[in-house]
Amino acid sequence: MDKHGGEHLRFEVLGLLRAVRGGEEVDLGAAKQRAVLAVLLLARNTPVSRDQIIEAVWGDHPPSSAVNLVQTYVAGLRRALEPSRARRAPAELLTSVGDGYLLRVERNAVDLEDFERRVAAAARLRASGDPVSAAAELDGALELWRGEPLGGVVGLFAEVERGRLVERRLAVLEDRAELMLLIGRGAELVPSLTSLVGEHPLRERGHGLLMRALCQAGRQAEALAAYREARAVLVEELGVEPGPELRKLHQAVLAGDNPEPEPPTRPMALPAGAEPVPPSPITPAQLPRASVTLIGRDGELERLDGLLADHPDGGLVLVVTGPAGVGKTALALHWANRVREDFPDGQLYVDLHGYDPNQEPLGAGEVLNRFLRTLGVPSPDIPVTVEERSALFRTLIADRRMIVMLDNARGSTELLPLLPGPPSCVVVTSRRRLVGLVAHAEARLVELDMLDLDAAVAVVGRVAGRDGTESAALRRLAVLCDGLPLALRIAAARLAVSPTLKVAELVAELDDEHGRLAALGLEDEDSTVRAALDASRRALSPLPARLLALLGLHPGPDVTAFVVAAMARVRVSEAQRALDALTAANLLSLNETGRYGAHDLVRVYTRTLAAELAPDERGSATSLMLDYYLHCADLADGQLPVARGNSVRVAPEHKPAEVPKLTGSAEAIAWLEAEQGNIIAAAELAAEGGERAWLVHAWQLPYALSRFFWLRADRSTWLRMTETALKAAAELGDPEARFVMLFNSGIALAQVGRVDESLVRHREALEVARASGDVNAQARALTTVADMLQGLGRVDESEASYREALEASRLAGSRWAEANAHHNLGLLHLATRRYGEAGTWLRAAVGMYREVGEQCGESTCHADLAMVLLESGEHAEAVTSARTALSVASAAASPYHLAVAHDRLAIVFERQGLPGAVAHWQRALALFTELNAPEADQVRARLARARAATAV
Q1: What pLDDT, on a 0 to 100 scale, did the predictor assign at position 357?
Q2: What is the C-alpha separation between 92 and 498, in angstroms, rounded?
Q3: Is residue 655 a contact partner of residue 627, using CB atoms and an 8 Å limit?
């Protein structure tokens, strides 16, 4: 519910543009007013300047009254969207920001967001081996379309966005067809694909999908006819022959080969190992929104234009370089958007985070993974190595004229695999000159310096909306900001949000500043940025101004409204509005939905403000932040598909009043993935913060992440955090803390192959458990001691320890520990070739795991049982057990256990001479590699042997 009419607003763009409240359609007014709404809606939660709105609605020929018309339309939209707002009360949904407006829209309040969320969910389901559910998600996404998108909206902007959305829907339709083919339901697709090809005859992927569907329906002759029709259209309309993938498909049908390598005989939920499908000819448009005008950079723009003219055949690599805050990204984006028509095949963009102190730079492998997915390559078909990904990337955009923008690069080496070559153009921004890129790729440098005085004055005047009546004061303000665009924008924002403030008054404030912040100055330690930031902060209302200082206490890379609300002891809605105010003042940026970060210079400023707070306030806010992360991490941990083997009581002193919605393992894992960096940073702060009370957080935060790290096979981070937490537990002198961290440290050491050290830790943990009389802890420690003894080849000692663990777990009444002991005794008997006893122990363990809801343990136990059955000659049962392991791992949403199950199923298939082993090893290798798990090397070796045997 909201206070603007009683019901939440929902916006629809996938059809006639509509706003609906409580089932009733909102009157959005005339066509131009609807067009203004469309511009604001597609940029939701992001400020849009008046100039951008005018350009979008009227194009190159706006009326002289355009500014007044935009104001009129915005006023009309405010009345429509907030009918209960008092006449003089400030707007809350559609607010004025600087020289433009911001439409604040709740999450998932736009049908387009629902559509993209379902498409993303389908991609995850397909990657996890569940194409049936993935296809169902895409069905739900496509049902959201009610007709031509942005219906009833006129203008060039609407036409461009309409074309983009239509293209997106076509790509999703093709993705759904691909999934249906994977599960053997191609015959059902023939009518819809025939219509799709008829409506869009130049899309080669559609022709290929139709041919494959016809073949699955047993209509090979019609598939050949479909190819002839496709070739005729392509030759007549475009003057080109079909591409290599379509020709390859044609040859397969001519030769009587089935184009599906392993066609399923019936619909099923698991992929049959089909070969990679050629990516769709997607035209990406990833360049972020850029300013319509760019002041003071005419010379640099002319140089960029000249360099492009000197390379008519493409292949140009540009490096825009200069100090922090000088406007490198703004220049690069402005120019790239200006010349985008010269690159009709699209634009790719990525922020490499090369200088973000709180976020690891993106590696070439991750960047290539994103680019390949954007270009239509399904996740399972993306190669494992950087070299293979780079080769596929170059292949996909060969002969395509595209712009590739690599923002915030740190060094040359990681960029080389990302360079596509002619006819595309690459634009790089970096604080470094990247001499290596100049040497190896003949890159051309465009170096930026501070703006000259006239340009600096123009920037302040434009952003602040001030005329030339205060020219002397504006020039003095520009001098104080030293021509640094970041400082100029912040100072101008101060004027923009305070129309009654005279420029001379702001100049006086800056002139009177003391103790200016050298760390926020230029390389020569000029400190005018601190003055501009201080002035901007003083213009804020009390809560945003207070939050700016509290944010300096936060150790992680970004924040959400939830953690800020906890630190400030306010409601999440208040924190959200305050964060929006900081964003509007150019002090924060919205990195993604709901996550806010600061420019690196502003980040230093917030830390300085935090240091100026009273000690009690610093300590209180930090404790509240630590309690928030501990409480939420514990909630998420409790939703994971891994049972908690012990009963650590997590009870922070200050339970946050509002927390994110975490229901089910998928939401829990997503939250932990998003907050992992923040939780790690919080644990490290707690360990080093000097407050004894924080030592509980220093060990319980790593404890809460331990199962997540185990699921993600992130062993190095787990070990590092656990070792730090162990020191905190020892300093506390708490037996429970010592046991838990000794136990987890032993597990982490074993995961990285340090078995001797692991045995020492587990024996220490066992002694702590015995000293405290905790029988359940003794059972767990005895089991892990036995694990290590078995790993060291000390079988008799290991079995004795397992049996002692079994007795202890029964005495403690812990079914989880008892299941674990049964499982490990089964593995011991498997290793010593006592297959009958091994099967008995493992079957008992499966039942116990199922009883306690331990899906990951159940999946692994089924995988191990498959090996026992295989060795016992029970081949059909081995296949069934391995498939069950895969199904349970998929339900648990655990990539690591999915990889294990794929590996075991491949072993079972190969030993029995069944087809499909290679496909399952390929999937296992992709999953293990993505997790950076050492098992990848073993699977890679098995896959190589299998391929070599096939070749012979």
Answers
A1: 52
A2: 18
A3: yes
Preceding amide of 423 cis, omega within 30: yes
Quote the CA–CA distance of 451 and 530 in Å, as a whole number: 18
The alpha carbon dihedral of 639, 645, 647, 652 has a sign of negative
> What is the CB-side half-sphere exposure of residue 393 using CA atoms within 13 A?
29
Within 10 angstroms of residue 405's Cβ, the number of other Cβ atoms is: 24
Q: What letter represents residue 256's amino acid?
A: G
What would the DSSP string read from start to end of 817-886? HHHHHHHHHHHHHHHTT-HHHHHHHHHHHHHHHHHHT-HHHHHHHHHHHHHHHHHTT-HHHHHHHHHHHH
In whole angstroms, what is the distance from residue 628 CA to residue 694 CA? 13
Dig out the tokens for 714 from the structure: 């992130």
Length of the chain: 952
Closest listed residue to residue 329, CA positions, set 314, 319, 339, 338 = 319
Closest by Cα among 169, 235, 173, 249 to 206: 173
Q: What is the pLDDT of residue 519?
A: 25
Here the contacts of 415-420 (C-beta below 8 Å, separation 24 or greater) are 415/364, 415/441, 416/364, 416/440, 416/441, 417/364, 417/368, 417/386, 417/387, 417/389, 417/390, 418/364, 418/367, 418/368, 418/371, 418/390, 418/393, 419/317, 420/393, 420/394
| Bridge partners of residue 350, in order along the sequence | 406
- Alpha-carbon distance of 732 to 722, in angstroms, equals 15
Characterise 737 by phi-psi region: left (phi > 0), alpha (psi -120 to 50), beta (else).
Answer: alpha
Give the tokens for residue 151: 């219906």
Q: What is the DSSP string of 274-325?
A: PPPPPPP----B-PPP--S--TT-HHHHHHHHHHHHT-TT---EEEEE-STT
pLDDT in the model for residue 952: 47
Q: How far apart are CA 394 and CA 400, in angstroms?
A: 10
Distances (CA, A) of 380 to 237, 275, 348, 444, 929: 34, 10, 21, 37, 12
pLDDT in tens, 824-846: 889 888 888 888 888 999 999 99
804-835 in b/e form (b: 16+ CB < 10 A) is bbbebbeebebbbbbbbbbbbbbbbbbeeeeb
Task: Report the Cα 569 to chain-centroid distance in Å.
Answer: 29
CA 937 to mean position of chain CA atoms: 27
On whether the CB atoms of residues 365 and 386 are closer than 8 A, the answer is yes
Indicate the SS3 state at residue 473.
helix
Q: 37-92, pLDDT tens digit by residue?
A: 998 998 887 778 888 888 888 877 788 888 888 888 888 898 888 888 776 677 78
Residue 895 CA to residue 498 CA, distance in Å, equals: 52
pLDDT 10s digits, 129-149 = 788 888 999 999 999 998 889
